[in-house]
């Protein structure tokens, strides 16, 4: 059963089964949220956003137009997504906003910043506070400003974290 807190403003009819939306969260009409997700308090999800199944979005996240989040991804608290490399008031990209993709099973630590148009690869791990300026390969662990690959997850380390 989908659970939407009475103090949430959910305008989308595309909310999957067994998804929970907490208080003070706004989900706009065009957004698509998968099944068994947990969308925590104080989040904002724009129209052109697609969230897969079993995704966790912790408190304080704003998911802007163009974001695609794969199944079983984790977005830690207060992650900053951007969708315009050259933002100006009341000026929008002619071709629309670039698509940023968080692939299946990727995890983004709290306070990280993700620039627009990047891909965070399947199973990748972005360290807390990292500033991601380039796409991240699958199973890579990145940290720092700018984020750099510090190692790769192996099947043993992936299994241990599940």
UniProtKB/TrEMBL annotation:
CDD domains attached to this UniProt entry: LbH_WxcM_N_like
Any Pfam family hit: Hexapep
InterPro entries: Hexapep (IPR001451), Hexapep_transf_CS (IPR018357), Trans_hexapeptide_repeat (IPR050179), Trimer_LpxA-like_sf (IPR011004)
Keywords noted in UniProt: Acyltransferase, Repeat, Transferase
Enzyme Commission designation: 2.3.1.-
A GO MF term: acyltransferase activity
SUPFAM superfamilies for the chain: Trimeric LpxA-like enzymes
Domain of life: Bacteria
Segments crossing the lipid bilayer: none
PANTHER family reported for this sequence: ACETYLTRANSFERASE, ACYL-[ACYL-CARRIER-PROTEIN]--UDP-N-ACETYLGLUCOSAMINE O-ACYLTRANSFERASE
Family the UniProt entry places it in: Belongs to the transferase hexapeptide repeat family.
Name this protein carries in UniProt: Acyltransferase
Originating organism: Duganella zoogloeoides
């Amino acid at each position: 059963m989908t659970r939407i807190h009475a103090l949430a403003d959910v305008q989308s009819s595309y909310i999957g089964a067994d998804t929970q939306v907490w208080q003070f969260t706004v989900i706009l009409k065009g957004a698509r949220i998968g099944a068994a997700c947990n969308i925590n308090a104080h989040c904002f999800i724009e129209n052109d956003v697609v969230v897969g199944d079993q995704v966790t979005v912790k408190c304080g996240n704003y998911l802007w137009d163009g974001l695609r989040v794969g199944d079983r991804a984790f977005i830690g608290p207060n992650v900053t997504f951007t969708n315009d490399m050259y933002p100006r008031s009341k000026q929008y990209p002619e071709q629309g906003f670039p698509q940023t993709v968080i692939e299946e099973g990727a995890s983004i630590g709290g306070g990280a910043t993700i620039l627009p148009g990047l891909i965070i690869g399947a199973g990748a791990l972005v360290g807390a506070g990292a500033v991601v300026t380039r796409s991240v390969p699958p199973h890579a662990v990145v940290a720092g400003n700018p984020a750099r690959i510090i190692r790769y997850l192996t099947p043993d380390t992936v299994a241990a974290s599940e």
